Amino acid sequence: MFWKLRLPLALTFFVGLVPIVTFFLTERVFGVSFVRDRVEQYMVIIAGFALLLGVVNVVQGNVRKIERRRPGWPFAISLLTGLFVMGTFGLLSAFRVGPFQGILSAPDGSDTPFYWMTRSLFNPLQAAMFSLLAFYIASAAFRAFRVRNIEASILMVAAFVVMLGRTPLGEYVFGWIPGGHRWLPTFTEWIMAVPNTAAQRGIIIGAALGAAALSLRVILGIERSHLGVKGKS
Amino acid sequence: MTPDTWYDPSRVGAPLVLLLVFSALVLFFIQRSRQGHALFIRRIAGITAMEEAVGRATELGRKVLYLPGGGTLDDIQTIASLAVMRHVASLTAQYSVELDVPNKDPLTFAAARETVQEAYIQAGRPDLFNNETVHYVTYDQFAYTASITGLMVRDKPATNFLIGAFHAESLLLAETGQTVGAMQIAGTAEVTQLPFFAVVCDYTLMGEELFAAGAYLSKEPAMLGSIKGQDITKAGLIAFLILGILLEIFGIHWFRDFMTIS
Asked: N or C: which terminal CB in chain A sees fewer CB atoms within 10 Å?
């Protein structure tokens, strides 16, 4: 009970108070910067160990998948190969072992194998995944702008104005009227700055209060789900 | 040590007053709720649909996928997500449905494993929990996204929960889930990602609803009382906003200056 509940609750209470108290105090108060910096450093150290736990879990899960020939097991081989090759070159470069002197570039200025793999394999794969977003936005926009009710209709008209107002085409639609080339961009800016910002701020204020209430519950030990136990009634 | 050296004068005005008033209100309503006073909390569609979502997975005989977002444990959205995860895990244990919780952040992974395992034990089904129920994927945002979208396409989960801190990956995940026909319940406080979830998912917990979800689901007086305190504070803030607008219109600026944090 002590290790699983009381100690974590006491630590949560102490660590939760640190940012609140240090927010109001200046660094001239003895121990403020020390405690704040230490808490941040411990967070990084704990995250490092947790990452090791994650890597072990990935290896265990994928080795099991290969052993039992589960569907998609060849992909597990690919994943483990990538993990060990990148991991090995990364560690050799980080600890400057043998010919691997440096993480990004060697002493002669040439790229290290680790950097070459990052630049030529990893970054393009990331970019490909991110660029898919354009297609997903198009299909999501199609679904959002279907005219089903009054709200969807208003959304569609607003989106049409904003899209038109943020492209050169918008300036030319009313361009034939003296001074008319600024009408759509100005209306677009108004939509973004007034109704859009007002709605966003409403959500942000609500979320901030919700976050503060949840934080208070966590600090006081009322909310305990993150410890794997039910809340205190 | 003179007073102006040990505290920051620009921060002890409105922020300190708001912190004290807010904390006092929350604690007052927690106490009031513990004493047995009934509190009305409005129905949140996304939360009440969770049981239906797990029931759907039971009928279809397919898994429930729970994504706790990309945030680490110092993100309060992740803590809120763990509270919802606990409830979802209890439901999947009761209904004997397979639950899959892939993680991006290693600390969240450790906490999620503990949360789900404990929920299975308390539901009386520890036999249903195994090491692959909650597993780690990768720390990289788009590698994680690629892995989860692939998992959705291959396994076709009946229900997807996307609850926590999401960023550029939100639409990629939610749209893939929609494509494979999963019922989707999302929740985040990231304002830039909410429109994507609202468009693509069946139910969306917006901002404060995400933080209230754990308390709402637990039905515990202490938790519900804190929501009431939060709502009263919100009403007070709205009154302050209106007061501030009126004072500014009449050229009186002391209230704005008092509320400003440098």
From this structure: N
